[in-house]
Design goal:
mainly alpha; flat
Length: 139
Amino acid sequence: MKRLLLSLVAALAVGALSYAITRGIMRPAEEDPDTWLQREFKLTETQRAAVEKLQADYEPICAEHCAQIMQIQRQLAAAPDDPALQTELARLKQVCFDATSKHLREVAAQMEPAQARQFLALMEPKISGHDHAAPLGLK
């Protein structure tokens, strides 16, 4: 009985180890956002090219918004009670939110309606929680 129990435990351990090894080995490499977007939303090459162009055009705008927001946040760290800085931060965050929302709708417009709804449901919540340390990606 002891031998059977020991064999069973050993077999389970070997199985668990085998599973862990194959999951690590067979895990795909980190995909770039464009490849992920194409795979996740089943984009055609034409759709992917349109989305890549939209993203390339929007990225410097987004980066500029982030830089402006980060600058005001640094100023606020030195003067947290400054109402002008607080107002400016709120304004810049709204500009960023509006521009990013528009950009996401433009990206979604390149997709089939069902894909677009799924894409927006995934991406729109990310806008509000974005920390502006870097431009918001499409993944």
